[in-house]
Each structure stands twice: as structure tokens, then as C-alpha cells.
């Protein structure tokens, strides 16, 4: 098993469960857009990829309406949604122990960066994280592949199997592979297990305890 020196975590669905905050923000946005005829489970597809992708691909909104829907989402999320959130069981203890072991830890998330920073500070996880890189406001550099690339460039990290990307969706695994990193898929988040297995991650963790065992080896 590879000994990892640098660990890049996704946020939603990997470290924290922000389901309620995201879903409530989406419902607010869609209501403001006068969109009310949709299956509830369609909203699950927003967790992982950039917001812009969700509104354009899942609801077929044009560029102008997508931008407006994102604004409405952020209006609710910035006030209420970001703290409707909870770390998965064992995550806080895992990060503290990995820090004790000398692991270098980072966050790469498609969430708007300022909200991701608020969440990390709220749960006091920021003291263990060297850098958090999130999506830019306009969504031009919001793909997970680009966010990881930008993080590595800013930290002057070269591709290595000792650097691992961890996430709960295919976007995380594809982003890690595109940057020539090791990858770990977690099944307790929002991704579909069959899609995660098809993405062929190097490792697969069914819970936080199993994830820690892989990372601390």
C-alpha cells in the first residue's frame, strides 16, 4: 500500500454532510425561478459538480437563467445553507490524528471558496488544513480537475502517487487521475457506488474508519 504524504480531500460528501443546506438552497432558487415540476431526487445530482453544471445540464437552463439561479442559491446558502451541515462520524478525530502523523492536508471543492472556508472554520478543521481551494465566483474554473490543478500549482506540488485525492463522486476520481495522483473513493457520500467503481479508483473506503486505515498506513 502506498504511503501518502499529501492528502487532498473533497468537502461535501467526504468530510461533511451538507445535504440539507444544499437541498434547501436549491429549492429556494428553483422557487424563485418559478420551477416547481421536478422529481425531488433530481436535486441529488447537484452535490459534487459545479452549480452551473447542475442548473444547465439537469434543468436545461440557458446561460442567463443559470447565472440567475446560482445567485438565488447563494442568497439562501450564504445566510442559512452553509451551516446546515455536520461532519461525518469520526472525521474530526481522523483529521487530528493524520495531522499528528505529519500528513500534509488540503481541500479541493467545487463549492464557492468563501463558503467552504466558513464551514472549515465553523468546525475548527481549518487548523489542520494547509490550503483550501474552491470554485471561483463565476464558475469559470469550477471543475474538480482544474481546482486540483490550481491547488497543486499554488503549493508547488508535482504529480506523485504519494499525493492522494479523496472524494465521493466520479468528478473527484477523474480529477485526481487527470492530475496523475492516487485516488480514493468513499461510498458513504453522495456518489453512486456503481459509478465510483467504474471510475476505477486506486482504493475504496466504505466508512471513515476504513479511510483512516488507508491514509495512516
Explain the layout of strands and helices.
Elements: E1 6-9, E2 16-17, H1 19-32, H2 51-58, H3 63-79, E3 86-87, H4 91-100, E4 104-112, H5 113-122, E5 131-135, H6 144-154, E6 163-167, H7 170-178, E7 182-186, H8 193-198, E8 203-205, H9 208-215
Parallel strand pairs: 1-4, 1-6, 4-5, 6-7, 7-8
Antiparallel strand pairs: 2-3
* Chain-averaged pLDDT: 94
Quaternary class: single chain
Radius of gyration, Cα only, in angstroms? 17 Å
Question: How many discrete structural domains?
Answer: 2
| CATH architecture descriptor text of the largest domain | 3-Layer(aba) Sandwich
State the helix count. Answer: 9
Give the CA-based shape. globular
Give unreliable regions as ranges: none
Q: What is the H/E order?
A: EEHHHEHEHEHEHEHEH
Largest sheet: spatial strand order = 5-4-1-6-7-8
Question: Which percent range describes the beta-strand content?
Answer: 15-25%
Helix content: 40-55%
Helix- and strand-based class?
alpha/beta
Question: Main β-sheet, in a few words?
Answer: 6 strands, parallel
**Head-to-tail CA distance between termini:** 7 Å
CATH topology of the largest domain: Rossmann fold
- The strand count comes to 8
Which superfamily, in CATH terms, is the homologous superfamily of the largest domain?
HAD superfamily/HAD-like
Q: Which CATH class of the largest domain applies here?
A: Alpha Beta
Amino acid at each position: 500500500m502506498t504511503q501518502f504524504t499529501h492528502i487532498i480531500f473533497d468537502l461535501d460528501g467526504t468530510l461533511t454532510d451538507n445535504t440539507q443546506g444544499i437541498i434547501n438552497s436549491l429549492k429556494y432558487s428553483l422557487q424563485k425561478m418559478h420551477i416547481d415540476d421536478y422529481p425531488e431526487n433530481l436535486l441529488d445530482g447537484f452535490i459534487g459538480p459545479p452549480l452551473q453544471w447542475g442548473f444547465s445540464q439537469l434543468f436545461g437552463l440557458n446561460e442567463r437563467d443559470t447565472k440567475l439561479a446560482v445567485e438565488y442559491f447563494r442568497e439562501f446558502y450564504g445566510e442559512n445553507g452553509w451551516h446546515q451541515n455536520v461532519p461525518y462520524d469520526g472525521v474530526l478525530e481522523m483529521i487530528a490524528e493524520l495531522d499528528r502523523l505529519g500528513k500534509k492536508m488540503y481541500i479541493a471543492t467545487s463549492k464557492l471558496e468563501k463558503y467552504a472556508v466558513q464551514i472549515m472554520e465553523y468546525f475548527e478543521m481549518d487548523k489542520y488544513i494547509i490550503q483550501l481551494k474552491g470554485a471561483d465566483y463565476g464558475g469559470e474554473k469550477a471543475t474538480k480537475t482544474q481546482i486540483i490543478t490550481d491547488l497543486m500549482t499554488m503549493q508547488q506540488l508535482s504529480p506523485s502517487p504519494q499525493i492522494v485525492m479523496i472524494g465521493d463522486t466520479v468528478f473527484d476520481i477523474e480529477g485526481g487521475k487527470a492530475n496523475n495522483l492516487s485516488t480514493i473513493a468513499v461510498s458513504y457520500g453522495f456518489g453512486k457506488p456503481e459509478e465510483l467503481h467504474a471510475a476505477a479508483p486506486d482504493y475504496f473506503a466504505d466508512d471513515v474508519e476504513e479511510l483512516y486505515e488507508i491514509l495512516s498506513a
